[in-house]
Structure formats: C-alpha cells, structure tokens
Amino acid sequence: MKQSLTDENSTGFTNAVKKIAQDLFGKKSVDIPDNKNSEKNPPLFINYVTLNRMGLTIRNLSRILESKEDFDLHIIDSNSKDNSWDYIQGLTDSRIKSKTRLDLNQGPIYPLNLNLTKRRPDQYFMTIDSDVYIYTDNWISRFMEVFDAFPEVGVLGVMRDNPYPRYIPPIIPRVKGDISYLQLKNAAVSVDLDFVPGHLQCLRPELINEIGYWSEENGYGDAELSPRVTHYTSFKVGFLTTVEIDMRQSIGCDECRGRDLCKLSKSVNTCFSLSKKANMNESFVRRHGWKYIETFKELGDAKRTAYCASMLDPESMKDHVYNKEWANENFDYYIKNSNQYDNIL
User: Fold this and answer.
1) For the segment 78-92, what is each residue's pLDDT rounded down to a tens digit?
2) Torsion of CA 174, 176, 181, 185, to 10 degrees
3) DSSP notation for 187-214
C-alpha cells in the first residue's frame, strides 16, 4: 500500500455528506456502457503490488480478473515471504502483461514507479492495493465516464471503506448531466486525511506528463500526490462514488483459496502476521516525514516544479530537481527494516 497518513479515530461521513452522496451519486443500479475512451486510448494500465497476504491477494485479484473489461495488468511481488509468488506465477489471463518479483522490498513507492516506467504515454494509469475487493461491475467504465465528462480531473479515487471508517475530507460536488464526482476542496499540506487515498486510484495520462512520478524523495505517496496536483498543476483531484469496495484486512486459513499452495508453518506465522512484520509505513513517516514538509516548501518557493523524477527513469532526472540522497535514504529504510523477518516455510 502506498504511504498514507491514517487516523483510525476519524469520524465517518457527516450527515450532510451522506445526503450529497445519496441524492446526487447513489445511482448504483444505472447501467454503464462500454468505455468510450477505448476508442481513443489503449487499455487501462493497472499497477498491482503484493507483499504477503496471499489469501487476500487471491480473493481480490481473482475478482479483478473476473471483469469483462479490457486492461493491461502488471503485477509486482515485493519479496513476499509467503507463497504469493507461486500463486502469481500460475495466473494465465492474457491481460496480465508482466509479472515481476523483487529481491527486496524497497517500500511502496519503488514498485509503483517501476510499473509506471512501463506505461505507454497515452495510457491511463490505475493502481489497486492488494487489500481492495471491487464489488461493482464495469468499474473501469465508471472511472472513464467521469474522466470523459470532466477534462479537468487528473486523479480519481474512491474513499476507504469497511473495515476502515468511511471518512471524506472537505469536497465540492461536481455534476454534469448524469455524471458526477466529488472534487477535493483543499488538499491542504500536513492535514491528516485531506487527500484522495491511493488504494484504488486512476490518473489521466496528460496529468502524468505534467507530474512525472510519485515522489521518491519524500516517499509520502497518496498523501503528497493530492496537494501536489491540486496546487501545482492545472488538474483537479476527486472521489468517484459509483464504485463499491471493501478493504478486508485478513481472512481465516479455513476460507483461504490458497490453502493448497501455502507452505507456512501456521502455528508460527500466517501470511497476515508476515505482512504486519514487513509493514514499516508508520515508522517511516516518523523517521522521514520531514522530507514531505521540505518538498512542499521547495514547491512554494518555486525551487522545484510539480514534476517528480525517478531514478528508475534516468531521462526524467536530466532536467528536473531530484534529491538522490533523500530517495536513497527512503529506499534503504525499507531494505534494512522490511526484509529481515523470518521466512518460515
């Protein structure tokens, strides 16, 4: 999962926002036609990264592959210690365009940007976290109808859902005919949860041309993307409300569809306990969060543009500011702290 500042004590929807969602955007039974964008754009690029939690990966990735819509799926396994890679290797869907296993987990930004380097310049880019189960059919078309109707929208995501609190930051409802979305109003820097979470998020190709990559220099992922786009590009960020998900965090071994693949000694470790041991996002923020503040100071002082380069794309670094020392420190933090837990097979 990309870096997110979380607040488990945050309140859910206010009554006012509930009414907005129900009155304007509650048309769950509306049939969505095939994606109009398919006539002028190649299939959607989907980034899917796994790190342990094989049971959830099987449940949620299988649901994605049940879709009848077209897409290019690129899967990265960030050095899982369970049998996630065995499952991934067995997948045969023709829409899977690449499968990559990293020797080391280098945090959430490294694999995200690695897959972004594979994107064609005219492809929309969607990232889906392994803990997201998509209930809605034709979910790609539901994203694309908003992008088609609102050319100013650069980033669309969905709010977090069960078991997380259904929280939404200040928004502005935008409506055009039967199509609507919730535009993020403030995207204030350093305000908890005032961003569009990145667990299911899609970016317009024209925006990517303007912003490059997720910041490797501060490593804040979705928490830095929303304010960077909102305040330093010509695009807007918002919430899609017609796609339903859940974000279940674990399933029991007895209901796991990967039981025959799993070789873990479950009395010692499950794929979910391994996942917790490998997750260093909160400690990363405590240690390196100051870089997020410094990055936006530099943006405010016009010392850098909204474009973030990546060391995975040397060409991107030639004409743009890139603090290689910060980026290496961030990657090294995960390398040193997120790969040392025991591999019990």
Assistant:
1) 999 999 999 999 999
2) -20
3) --TT-TT-S--SSEEEE-HHHHHHHBS-
- Could you tell me which residues come within 8 angstroms of residue 278 by beta carbon, excluding any fewer than 6 positions away? 51, 52, 81, 105, 338, 339, 341
Q: What pLDDT is attached to residue 79?
A: 94
In terms of Cα–Cα distance, which of 156, 129, 127 is closest to 248?
A: 129
| Helix (H/G/I), strand (E/B), else coil: 227 | helix
What single-letter DSSP state applies at residue 314? G
- For the chain, the residue count is 345
DSSP 35: P
pTM score, whole prediction = 0.89
Locate the domains of the chain by residue range.
1-39+135-339
Exposed (0-12), middle (13-18) or buried (19+): which is 252, by Cβ within 10 Å?
A: exposed
Single-letter code of the amino acid located at 96: I
The model's pLDDT over 165-176, given as tens digits with 9 standing for 90+, comes to 888 999 999 999
Sort strands 200-203 and 179-184 into parallel, antiparallel or unpaired.
unpaired
What does R_g of the chain's alpha carbons equal in angstroms? 19
223-265 pLDDT, tens digit each: 999 999 999 999 999 999 999 999 999 888 888 898 889 888 7
Amino acid identity, residue 189?
V
